Amino acid sequence: MIKRQRPWGSTFYRGRVLTASFLLLTACLLGALAGCALIHTNGKPDALIQPDQIRLADDIHLAREGWPSARWWAVYGDPQLDALIDRALANAPTMVIARSRVAQAKSNVELVKAGSSLQVTALALLDREHVSANGFIGPFAGNNPALGISGPWYTEGIVGLGASLNVDIWGKQRALVAASLGEHNARLAEESAVELEISTDVAQLYYGIQTTYALIDLLDQSRQVAAFAVETHEARATRGLEPRTRVEEARAQQFAVTRQIVAAQTQVKQFRESLRALIGAGPDTLPDIEPVPLPQQSQASLPATLSYDLLARRPDLQAMRWYVESSFHRIDAAKAAFYPSFDIKAFFGVDALHLGDLFTHASQQINFIPGLYLPIFDGGRLNANLSGTRAVSNTLIEQYNQAVLDAVRDVAQTGNRLQDLDTEAQLQSQKVQAVTFVRDSAEAHYARGLGSRFTAMEARLPVIAEQAALLDINGQRLSQEIALAKALGGGYRADPPVELKPR
Known about the structure:
Strand order of the largest sheet: 1-4-5-6
Organism: Trinickia violacea
GO cellular component, one term: plasma membrane
Subcellular location: Cell membrane; Membrane
Largest sheet: 4 strands, antiparallel
Oligomer: single chain
Pfam families: OEP
Helix content: 55-70%
Family: Belongs to the outer membrane factor (OMF) (TC 1.B.17) family.
Number of strands: 6
Strand content: 5-15%
């Protein structure tokens, strides 16, 4: 037997070839890396508002100590109000929309997370194919059973499992997940902001109705006095004791009071319709609102000063901070898009041109495909994406800065107005006491026969007028208390504000 000798140096030659191939591949990779798209328009983040700006001026102090509680409206002890707000928070269309947005944001988080997980797909494919005699597999177009060729028609079958995995080397996918989580947290805060908006709107409408009820009661008293005046002047005019003009003047006053009552009743109806639309009640499902006395003294729990805590208690500010934080993560993802990406694809199954051979050992097919993708020339697409992402982030930063300044302004203006109304209420109460003394004196004179009943009745009008003025002040004060509770976040307390780190 003659042995065929291996050519001398073949091993060395092959080693040289492999070494050369490796060096060539390395050079290609280095060249591709050097030719990757470069970051040209990174930009700089806008400055965030400083904590020392989140405070009131030294000459503005809120009226009381502490912050509003979560169910801030419960301090008024009104079961009707409690039931209306609970119903609104459960069924109001705007609440349903807010919850839907939270659910959508949660789905987006799960969708983005899935992009970085292992993907496995079951595959079953049946292909009835006519082979072209002039194509790459032209020899199979013939019919030669001895060679296993039965063309030109074939029924190909593929059955197996395909898998893919995106290897997140540069953190692009992690940044997208963090961005989606930030948007989800922002939606949660927005849901709380909607709850606060609805609860304060319901309280404002409810106490608007109660204030108008009280005004109607005072106007009804005034109308009774006006009716007595008409009767008195009518009797005197009939006896020739005074001219008819006094009767018409009294009747005009009576009409004026009646018109005010009608206007107040119309206002109640408008408040009710606004309340019905707010809580999503049907034409016959809004319960009757019974008159109750207004809270005589402020029961709201309010801080003496304002500080960084406002960021944690205002849901709208929390939402803005989360949107800003999310934008930072999107910038990270836009930067990571400039770097190479790596993924792995695999397939295991069977593939055969004849269905009868499909599940045989010879038909097994295994594919393992690592892939490296390098952005080299993209026409400026990646830089445009980074520039646009940075611009969106800076816009959100400025919107957040303005929202903080507006929040401090709202607290300052509402708190200052509430203090002024407290002072006005005290002065007006003293005025009511003064005119009440005059009325009581006139009624005492009438009781002792020292004065007329007409004089005693007319002495009630100044008291009613001043009581109406005091009612208006108390209504405004109650409205400002509710507005201030809203400006302070209404007792909302989430986690501490996220620490914003621009990049």
